[in-house]
Amino acid sequence: MSEPNAISSPASGGGKGWGRAEADFGFRRVPEAAKAPLVRAVFDSVAGQYDLMNDLMSAGIHRWWKAEMVRRLNPRPGQRLIDVAGGTGDIARRALPGLGPAAGGGVIVCDANREMLDIGRARALDDGILAGIDWLVGDAEALPFADRSFDLYTIAFGLRNVTRPERALAEARRVLRPGGHFLCLEFTPAVAPPLQPLYDFYSFQVLPVLGRIVTGNPDAYAYLAESIRRFPSQGALAERIVAAGLDRVSYRNLTGGIAALHSAWRL
User: Fold this and answer.
1) Alpha carbons 211 and 196: distance in angstroms, whole number
2) Across residues 168-194, what is the average pLDDT?
3) Which of 192, 138, 128 is nearest to 162 (CA)?
4) pLDDT tens figures, 29-46
5) Directed axis angle between helix 61-73 and helix 50-58, to 10°?
């Protein structure tokens, strides 16, 4: 894990495919209106095996990444967290003890995919989690909450799947209270150079085969690999977070740059 990289002001350049008339869906360019239904179809098709695939394709490392995210978040009793693209609730469940539901704290898991939320809710109930987490079908680009509603905002491996990421980032700032903390955990398009050939082979050759065996849908995991390659680099994403009006923006590479944790604040 490297030292944080601070970003203090917007700069030109950056990632690909953040246009206005079209959006990236993997390596394909599709009309903006088509992306959200395509992404929902991907996650509908793998929802039942999504968490298992995360364990298999990352050898469990994603659990450490998420634990690091919550450690950096440092939730405190009484705070309110919105976890956008929260899926089956991995981040929410890790953060909940620190939020202190008895003190009025809690988390809303907001995701566009109802089936993922249903699985997360059922698992939480099975584990005796009866309070502190609410589950909401919602759009990261138009969150159904008033300005300054939350102390904390997280999005893990979800920003790539949003049609207009800049709108999602603006919404993050809008719903955060002054002093609120924003964290984004995301895969990165390039890793440490010695790892790149192996990473590319695994992404484009092994991952779709694994997806076919476990979920029956190799295309979903081909999309995953492609969407990572089309996403902005760490620095370019940090610039977009600055452009959304968030402050004290920095990022930290994880596991040779396979993933990065971006941090920012609403001041």
Assistant:
1) 21
2) 95
3) 138
4) 999 999 999 999 888 888
5) 100
Instruction: Please provide the DSSP assignment of 159-211 as one string.
Output: GGG-S-HHHHHHHHHHHEEEEEEEEEEEE-S---GGGHHHHHHIIIIIHHHHH
Query: Mean pLDDT over residues 4-16, rounded?
Result: 41
- The span from the CA of 242 to the CA of 163, in Å, is 19
Q: CA of 228: how far to CAs of 105, 205, 232, in Å? A: 34, 15, 8
| Tokens found for residue 22 | 């079209």
Q: Does domain 5-266 have CATH number 3.40.50.150?
A: yes
Task: Say if residue 147's pLDDT is above 90.
Answer: yes
pTM across the whole model: 0.89
Calculate the CA 65 to chain-centre distance: 12
Please check whether residue 110 is in contact with residue 143, taking contact to mean a CB–CB distance below 8 angstroms: yes
* pLDDT tens by residue, 217-233: 888 888 888 999 999 99
Contacts of 120 by beta carbon, 8 Å cutoff, 6+ apart:
86, 87, 88, 89, 92, 109, 135
Domain ranges, ordered by start, for the chain = 5-266
Residue where the block lists tokens 């990261």: 140
Residue that is written with structure tokens 């002054």 in the block: 178
Give the largest CA-CA distance in the chain.
Answer: 49
The answer to whether 191 and 258 are in contact (CB under 8 A) is yes
Name the CA dihedral angle for 180, 249, 175, 261, rounded to a multiple of 10 degrees. -90
1 pLDDT more than 70: no
Contacts of 82 (CB under 8 A, 6+ apart): 107, 108, 110, 143, 145, 149, 150, 152, 153, 154, 175
User: What single-letter amino acid sits at 152?
Assistant: L
